[in-house]
Amino acid sequence: MKQILRLVLVVVLMISMMPYSKEAHAASNLLISEYVEGSSYNKAIEIYNPGDTPVDLSNYSLVTFTNGANRTTGTVTALKLSGTINAKSTYVVANQNAGEAVLSKAQLTTGSAVMNFNGDDTIVLFQNYDVVTKDGVIQDSIGQIGVDPGTNFGTEVSTLDMTLVRTNDLMTADTNIEDAYHPNQQFIALPKDSFEQLGQFDGNVIAPPAEVAKDEYQVKVLRVVDGDTIKISPAIMGSDTIRFVNMDTAETYHLDAYDESLITTDLNHNQKYYGELAKKALNEKLTAGMDITVKVNKDHITDDYGRVLGQVIRTSDNVNINLEMVREGFAATYFIWPVLSMEDYNMFQSAVKAAQDAGLGMWNKENPQMELPFAFRARYDGKGFLRYVGNSDTKVFYDPQNYDQVPVDKRIFFTKDEAIAQGYKPAAGNGEGDVVTEPAKAMDIQSARDSGKGTNAIVTGTVTHIDGYNIYIQDNTGGIVVRSKTVKPNIGDVIEATGETSEYFGLYQIESENIKVTGTSKVTPEIKDLSAIGETEEAELITINDVTVKSVNEHQEYTVEDKYGKTFMIKAKSGLEVGKTYHVITGVVTYSYGNYKLLPVDIVEKEIVKEVPKTLSGIAFLDQNHNGKYDRPDKLLKNIKVSIYKENELVEEVITDENGEYKALLLNGHYTICFEQPNGLIETFNDKGNDEVDSDIINGKVKVEINELDKENISAGFTKPVGKMKRK
């Protein structure tokens, strides 16, 4: 038997700073077995342990990559788990504001942003998650990082407005979070707000037959959301939300309340005022529990947000509520092609014309609604006008920003191709108009910007950010916005876009549906001083450093200040807090309402120091002349085990090689290093010298502070127990 002598070495390693990457790939031992994306806050994730032993969750995290975020850009939020999952058991994490049917089955309820996920977010279950590298051992995932699918991944089995559950034939984890995601390869779909399976794993669940769309549905009102949206029960095609069609009421989402002194002068307060009037009017027409019929276009039953598009008929008196809101001046008409019924179109347009002529509601002459809802959304959300506007009488269509060329009661909104297909002609000076279009010319981005509005250009650039229909691209000459309704590239794609240059509220852009991906690339943001950001940087990806948030306005526009007192504006829905200083903010430069602003893609509050392992090395040797140094005639000892402990926990074991050498990579910290005593040998003397290689151990331990490059070698000498060297 070998006698083990624990020779202790406490080492403080001061580690230099260098980037390094960590690859983490391992077999999964936990699965995401259920995904609940229900109404309101009904959101939950169920984790299943298919193994035969309990699993401690303290090293596991649920991580959400929001709206196409990846490991380097975008919003990434982590929730560290706790507790234990027994064998063949489940663990449910739920939003703390979910309904009782969800909360009663949860082991962990939380207000973390992780559990505010939507259908376009990616959720990953990690083991040993690293918040710096945003990586770890992937156990399972839902979605694809770096990709914003719009509203959801999948179709029949979708991450929006559904409950997804695993079955016995779908038990393979998705540990590749960068490949295309298809939820039907992991789950079957149950209707929205299905909670019966939550908290238990039943691999024999059978998906209900797909619901077949009908022309109309009989349901009950649950509540009014705003002037053109209600909640109903039971759900229609998985959705409990009805968005009234053929009409549009003022928005309310942008302010908690309006200031009455501002409703005649401020666009946002005016919009809120009329939005509240419309909501009040709809509440008077539809009360909770009321029976209604919802008429839909069964070929186009929901919008991009999963809401059912329909006309609401009150059962008690057969009144069309959509039409009544228009007649009374609480709503404008709003027809987006295809128009299901021209009879309905004429009826609604006649109603809005009559309301306008009579000065009812929003059309009153003294204090009218200052912006129609679609124009408000284009301005406030910064997405711009998205559709061309056709005059149903003259069959002429206009560019989106020229919507006011068409009377409200004659408007139909189209894509350009739809308008042309329906026989509409472009107005002079709009779109193709009477202007002879030159063939598109390939040019770099700066040349396209310098060419002036109306240039038919072909530009190629790398996608740096996507904001709704605005695609920010950049080449080595500059940046520009490509506006597209139909094409959704990924961050990092190199795209070629063909279209006409234009401006929207001063932001230069190319309107294009002719876009193709030609490759991938990465743009490195240039660090800019706040005072140096202007038109030259428009649409470019930049970085600003060490700024303090001074204030925020009601439009979620934050004013930041640098150490020189220079200020700039950042438009962000979240991630910033007044009074805090942020080390790095990276984003694209946009422009609206006379100001350049930064749309952030990555926010770092504190400078992150990445620790890099440093090599600790040494030898084990047979000290034959008993002087404590490695010299003649000493021999090197192979196969000596070196055990390294940190806080009494074994972190690494290494063996000396044929040359008696060992090496270990260690991060910053205090370590105890133990050398295995060779059979028949004892520890040699320590000469207390500074020789390059000597024995650093005496009486079992020595303290060494390694903070200089000349102190990397820690060695141990052993000798035969003869004479005075003999140990008892």
Automatic annotation (TrEMBL):
UniProt keyword list: Secreted, Signal
All residue ranges annotated as the LTD domain in the record: 18-166
GO cellular component term, pick one: extracellular region
Predominant location: secreted
SMART domains xref list: SNc
Cellular localization per UniProt: Secreted
Pfam families from the UniProt entry: LTD, SdrD_B, SNase
Residue span(s) of domain TNase-like: 215-365
Signal peptide: 1-26
Protein known as: Uncharacterized protein
Natural source organism: Macrococcoides goetzii
